[in-house]
Amino acid sequence: KGNTEWWKKATVYQIYPRSFMDSNGDGIGDIQGIISKLDYLKELGVEVIWLSPVYDSPNDDNGYDIRDYEKIMAEFGTMEDFDLMLAEMHNRGLKLVMDLVVNHTSDEHEWFVQSKSSKDNPYRDFYYWRKGKDGKEPNNWGSVFSGSAWEYDETTDEYYLHLFTKKQPDLNWENPKLREEVYKMMRFWLDKGIDGFRMDVVNFISKVPGLPDGELQPGQLYADGGKYFLNGPRIHEFMQEMNREVLSKYDIMTVGEMPGTTPEDAVLYTNPERNEVNMIFTFEHMDLDSAPGGKWNLKPLDLVDLKDNLNKWQTGLHGKGWNSLYWNNHDQPRIVSRFGNDQEYREKSAKMLGTCLHMMQGTPYVYQGEEIGMTNVRFENLSDYEDVETMNMYKERSMLGYAHEDIMESIYVKGRDNARTPMLWDDSENGGFTTGTPWLRVNPRYLEINVKQALADKNSIFYYYQKLIGFRKELDIITEGNFKLLHRDHSAIFAYNRTWNNEKLIVLCNFSDQVQTIEDEALLHEIQHADVLIANDEVYEKTLTLRPYDAVVYYKK
Ligand code: TEU
Ligand code: CA
């Protein structure tokens, strides 16, 4: 067992395999496609690759519904392809983190097929089965993807729980046999030599016994049961058991995806002395541009909320746990369209956002296409969209009487397909992603935004990210330093410093398309006696007046 904490200096790159690179013209990204782009990732400087699920799946939720944990999805390739990919990564000094989806399986997984066949089947208790209540569902919980969280099955006249789609039944972690099966499966992958796991909604696995009703809000069909399954009563016991039984035996990194967690929860999950996981993904900063009622209810970001939130996580985990840093993943809209400007200031604001995040403490994650400033899309027809969350929401909201235009606007701003349009490699048809018909429409801006263009321009977002990633390896202050938020009340500039021994970093980021100034004599004096470590535009003078989307990092020793 190694305990080198190598993940503290590493930057992780997330690949969504379906949309990364298609090697055989069927319009679907695949493992051979990934292998063909490893040199590109090496050039970017990342050390770790997190691969979204590549396991056998009927793809109700693009692989987050697993039918067989130890088989590769046929559309992506074979186990031989996988082994080759892992070897090719390791040859280049790249590490591989796999997605671990064990809150639920596919309803086509053999365990579930057995489980639903009869009440006395040995696998019955691998899932949550309950009798109906007064001819209705066992409780009032809603699914994260709309509708009830329960599905009736006539074979045994009972309902099963599914917090996501009805093709994603929740596993019952109360059952020790289930837990042992999961650990066995994890060892199968770790023994192949993979370097860690990203654990899908892993803080959902412990449910409050009795599964009590949630509080029903006026105008809603189903209640939010989160109180009874987020960070539930046995969650830390399960995480510690998994660590003891499996994780502790390997030199790996682990990150738990955990909606509904606070910094206080995060310390419990990530404090090294507690032996759970290395870091978690928080959702708090991704919820700031939502009005009450969930992500589809749009609200502009107030920068002060973002500053307060990231400040809380930076200071709350310092010395007590470890942060993961992210703006993007396969579930989130593109950050340059969201908190930046995807028109006139696309490149500049993309670099500004990268600067703001990458100078913080934690392990940064770059999502495919972020490094070239890929943007959201606005497809005209609902039929151009694929995501099950989007489709279910559309049905539910039209039933509730929302206008088509309003629902489409929510999809344009928040839909997950924004992140899932194919990676743009060059300016040829389909952005070089496929020679066939892509499974999801390509972003029409591929002529202007693509990897080929980025690699040819030494001022591109790509090379800027390359520098940010490099600094983290060189400068301990980035990984270790204290964090201090400056000028909290400024409505447009995100300013903070980092201090470590005799060193200091001062980070200034303008989140607006206007010239902005900070009035602060002492700070002005400080930057004037510091060097510019990196900036996203020429620095003609060291000043606290920032042009639109300016980002400057000063460094003093
Ligand atoms: O996401 C968990 C999760 O909570 C998301 O559903 C999130 O709330 C939503 O995407 C916001 O729009 C994980 C995976 O990352 C996601 O792709 C899966 O669909 C989900 O779990 C179920 O496995
Ligand atoms: Ca393919």
Automatic annotation (TrEMBL):
Recite the UniProt keywords alphabetically.
Answer: Glycosidase, Hydrolase
Keyword Chaperone set for record: no
Report which reactions are catalysed by this protein: Hydrolysis of (1->6)-alpha-D-glucosidic linkages in some oligosaccharides produced from starch and glycogen by alpha-amylase, and in isomaltose
Show where the Glycosyl hydrolase family 13 catalytic domain sits: 14-420
Q: Name one Pfam family in it.
A: Alpha-amylase
Top class in the EC scheme: hydrolase
InterPro entries xrefs: GH, GH13_cat_dom, Glyco_hydro_b, O16G_dom_2, SusG-like_C
Tell me its EC number(s), please: 3.2.1.10
Q: Report the NCBIfam families cross-referenced here.
A: PRK10933.1
Q: Which family does it belong to?
A: Belongs to the glycosyl hydrolase 13 family.
Protein name per UniProt: oligo-1,6-glucosidase
Source organism per entry reads Ectobacillus antri
